[in-house]
Amino acid sequence: MIKKNSLFSVIFLLLITKILGFWKLRIFAQLFGASHELDIFWAAFTIPDIIFMVLIGGSINAAIIPILTDELYDKGKSSFNLLFKHLTSAFFGLSVLFISLAFIFAPQLTSWIVSDASASMIFNMTSRITESDYTLFLNLFRIGLLSPLFLSVSGFVTAFLQVRKQFFVTSLAPLFYNLAMIVGTYILVVYFDFGVTAIAISAVLGSILHLLVQIPSLSKFYKEKNGELLNFKAIILDSNVIKAFKLAYPRMLGVLGEQFNTVVNTFISFTLSAGTLSAYRFAFSLHMFPINIIGSAIAQVALPDLAKYSCKNEEDNFRKMLNDSIQFSLYLIFPIVAIMLVLRLPIVRLIYGTGAFDWQDTLLTAWSLALLSLSVVGQTVVQILLRAFYALKDTWRPLLAIMVGIVVNLLGAFLLTNFFSHYYDWKPILDQVFVQIAQANGDGVLSVLKSFLKDIFKWSTTRGESDLAVGGLALSLSLAYFFQMIVSGYMLNKKKKVLSWEETIYPSLLKLLNTLIMIVGMYLVFRLFDFQLDTSRTVYVLILTIVTSIYGGVSYLIGSKIFSPKEFAKAESLIKGILIRLKLKEK
Fold it and tell me: At what angle do helices 274-290 and 470-495 cross, to 10 degrees?
């Protein structure tokens, strides 16, 4: 069973971290704008980020936490601490090797990026890096390589503490990382004129702070036995270290596959106009908000318990924990998706609608957000299903599911961007069909549909002129995560029967029904107030958004008493707890 206090404290800290992340980007925009110099920074940090994600980031959940959990509950704290030391040393050594190679060959890599036009697309650049940028790129790249060095150690400390259920402090670490990025960048640019190098230095300082903030908690649980020195032979021959690499290897391949997916999507996105590409990026950042907060928090809190139940062969507890995590995540995610769908335009206007961000940018970003919001459910559930696989020490099946998602996304990105680029060719045809059906006049409907289906291939394989082509990137991602969720669930059930109609599918459908009722009601309220208010003014857009959201939230909460009584009881308990605390403060 998910502990409410741990979960909501993690959600709260992740929310603050995400807000700081937006503030960080705002500081970057304020200091550098959409400049070529800032482009160079993002490109220079791409490889250090990949090194960390492939070697460490993917390994933490896939291998380290499950193996450490087994050791803690099988052999006790002393053996657990020794294994932590061995694993940290082994993976840190691997990180040092790759970072050293990247540092040594940085000049050659920089020369390739400067001379090859395709490198600009691979590194998601909006403008070419030239010979004059060589020194800056090289310096930023080498500074950036220090960041994964500290984060690799910090990542293992995070794994250690999460196994010991110290979720609060591990959630503080990324919060302090963002704070260091904000404060460090501002001070070094404004007072010391460091330019974009200030961001690189701040990232390194942030990674150090990410580690240091966890050290006091680590020292409470980790006790060195007589100050033992590292025994490299013991580390290399440790069967659990070998097992960790075997488990981590498929996840590393999965991360590389996801990076390849990103590169191909970037190539496709460069065939779109600059404005549509920016709209997609803005929408993508918005849709990740609930995933990073709710999905990540629930998956993070669930993994150590799933690993414990797997270790102890407590199948009933494992199944209950997994289904409780899925159902509670869906309970929290569904209303957010509903709000994104119905209020996509006012949300985009309130967050981005300033300065040069005009009405056309708003429409394109809202269009992308609507289609991306469909992926929120898939991405959230996939995070939890992946943790179930990792707890069962299975990293190959998730890799297959990830590959399916990548293939669907790549095919979809190509076909759907083409299809939506012909939006104004096929939209009138569909409108005609709907009008005929609404008027109960079936004459010609079949012939029109046949013509529509016949032209789909042409629309999907040729590029039209509509900027709505950007919707293809958004919808392909949503489809990819939907298929990855289905394939992951199917393969997980083949390995261990944990998902069922009664515990998984039926309650999910009830939550979906409650959400659809919420969407219909919200839409009616939205349209009613939209006609009454002057939405050209920001204050009225804000009122419209708040009123419609409140109605939707109340509607969903009341409906959940019927459709999701278990989750409703948790929400009711939480609300009562908050009200009691507020009353005590007033006294």
Answer: 30
Q: Are 444 and 240 in contact (CB under 8 A)?
A: no
CA atoms 377, 380, 384, 386: torsion sign = positive
d(CA 537, CA 319): 51
Four-CA torsion 32, 36, 39, 45, nearest 10 degrees: -90
Type of residue numbered 108 = Q
Determine the pLDDT at residue 274: 62
Q: Whole-angstrom Cα distance, residue 413 to residue 474?
A: 8
Dist. CA 384–CA 405, nearest whole Å:
16
The pTM (predicted TM-score) of the whole model is 0.87
Q: Give the CA distances from residue 96 to residues 91, 149, 159, 215, in Å, rounded to whole numbers and listed in that order.
A: 9, 7, 19, 21
On the 0-12 / 13-18 / 19+ scale of CB atoms within 10 A, 381 is: buried
Question: What is the domain partition of the chain in residue ranges?
Answer: 1-270
Q: What is the pLDDT of residues 487-521, one digit of tens each?
A: 999 999 999 999 999 999 999 999 999 999 999 99
Compute the distance between CA of residue 488 and CA of residue 180 in angstroms, rounded to an integer.
37
| Rounded distance between C-alpha atoms, residue 566 and residue 134, angstroms | 59
> From residue 246, how far is each of 89, 113, 393, 403 by CA, in Å?
16, 33, 10, 19
Amino acid letter for position 40: I
Rg (Cα) of the chain, in Å, rounded?
Answer: 25
Which of 266, 260, 297 is closest to 284 using CA atoms? 266
Which of the four pLDDT bands, split at 50, 70 and 90, describes residue 47?
A: confident
311, pLDDT greater than 80: yes
Across the range 404-416, mean pLDDT stands at: 93
Q: At which residue do the structure tokens 């083949």 appear?
A: 494
Give the confidence band of 225 by pLDDT, cuts at 50, 70, 90: low
What is the pLDDT of the chain when averaged over all its residues? 87
Are 391 and 307 in contact by the 8 Å Cβ rule? The answer is yes
Tell me the residue type at 352: Y
| pLDDT given for residue 569 in this prediction | 85
Structure tokens at 19: 């807000």
- Residue 127: pLDDT band (50, 70, 90) is low
DSSP annotation string for 338-368: HHHHHTHHHHHHHHH-STT--HHHHHHHHHH
**Helix boundaries (H) for 291-314:** 296-311
Question: 3-class SS at 463?
Answer: coil
**Distance in angstroms (rounded) separating the CA atoms of residues 507 and 514:** 11
Burial of residue 15 (CB within 10 Å: 0-12, 13-18, 19+) is middle
- State CA 148 to chain mean position distance: 19
CA gap 493, 354 in Å, rounded: 49
In angstroms, rounded to a whole number, what is the distance separating the alpha carbons of residues 467 and 470?
A: 6
Structure tokens at 361: 């940018």
In degrees rounded to 5, what are phi and psi of residue 272? -90, 165
Tokens 């490889």 locate to 47
